[in-house]
Amino acid sequence: MSVLSRLFLGLAFLFLLLGIAPSSIAKPLPPENCADRPFDKGRLWKVSKENTPPSYIFGTMHSKDPRILYLPGVVMQVFIASSTAVFETSLKDDELIRNQQQMLLAPGQSLRAKIGSDRFDALVRIASTYRMDAATLDRVKIWAAAAIISQPPPQGQDGQRFTLLDKELEKSAHQAGKRVVALETNQEQLDVFDSMPETVQLEYLDQAINENGQLDEEIEKMTSYYLSGNTGWIACNLEETLETVSPALGKIMTDDLIYLRNRRMVKRMLPELVNGNAFVGIGALHLPGDAGVLSLLEELGYTIERKY
């Protein structure tokens, strides 16, 4: 299973092209040898410090699965009561369109020429289910092609298009007149992929091509972990997957896409936590563990309390 389909629990922007998991859900089972870690169970956390109004951090899943869009009452309550809404990045339509260009090759370049005809033909066969023809696919970067096929197609079985929880929360925050803050720019998120050496991008693409057929099963497993609040299991599952990739790809998928971004997001959310009464929605994969956002905030003197 492509590692990025798991990492998208903590990376919102690329989901503008991506999909929906199956409609049924099985009782989740933990990954093998999954060790406990700090803050490894829960989706909503109260973050407080003396003489400051509390804020709340909610772990999201950047999926178009309609089950994800359902928010428990306690989550809606703190969201409605908040004065500031903080998200990983902006998912407003104009932002998405502007940054979509970064997924395309420079004029005159060809994906087929970069990856070879055999890889490209295999990719075209898969991309047809995403309603992408060969000419369109030939314009995208290697990492972008891998990202597209690392998620299910962007429509449900009935052809209905779905929205994202993160996008709906941002829209609701604007409509309610809340102050809306983005912790990262889309450019910052995509720069991580753009900086990947081509050899690593090709490894990522090969993995995505080979494992595309198991997407529904793996996405369903991640969804079951998320809905049951087992964010630590998501982290365990990622670690198991990374044992099979090169050290170079593994470093990017952990250090660059998780740990570095955890520290950056904590630094940027601190002013909002100082003011208090903030609702922070970030990918659930960023929450658990010693290097997770919640542990980093605890090190800074905040009291962390699970609410859901």
UniProtKB/TrEMBL annotation:
The keyword Signal applies. It comes from the Bacteria. Keywords: Signal. The keyword Signal applies. It holds the Pfam family TraB_PrgY_gumN. Residues 1-26 form the signal peptide. This is TraB/GumN family protein. It comes from Sneathiella chungangensis. The lineage of its organism: Bacteria, Pseudomonadati, Pseudomonadota, Alphaproteobacteria, Sneathiellales.
